[in-house]
Amino acid sequence: MTEALPPEKPPRLQWSIRLSALSLLSLLLLFSWRNLSGEDGSWLRWLIQCLPLAMFIPGMLVAWPRTYSWLCFVVLLYLIPAMTQVVMGIGYRGAESPPGQLGDWVSLVLLLVLFFTAAFNSRWLQHWHLQSPSRR
Hints:
It is a single chain. The protein is mostly helical. The protein has one domain (about 10-135). The chain has helices spanning about 10-35, 45-55, 55-60, 65-90, 100-130. The protein is elongated, with a radius of gyration of 18 Å.
């Protein structure tokens, strides 16, 4: 007996998966650029910022819904300081920096995109897995 293939992923799910991967990679690049090329950057801060996000890459490649659910929780831990940096203008460069520098805004937007796409991916992947003929 041959096992039936799962149905093709809907276009909204395909685009959402791509957008979440793009925003995660962009965040990792932004954190790397800020911490490894700046005067006040450090390897330890780079590891603390990038490792928790990089842990989710294998699960995203396999498209597990639980990976995206956990990613939402972790991104919330990044959103709070990012929002504070944009609103208050303090953070990496100290209190003398002007409110809402471009890098702070970019990281906030990328985090918001990652949070919402991960939430949608988790739900849509659950529905997609339930439509699989092997589960019936």
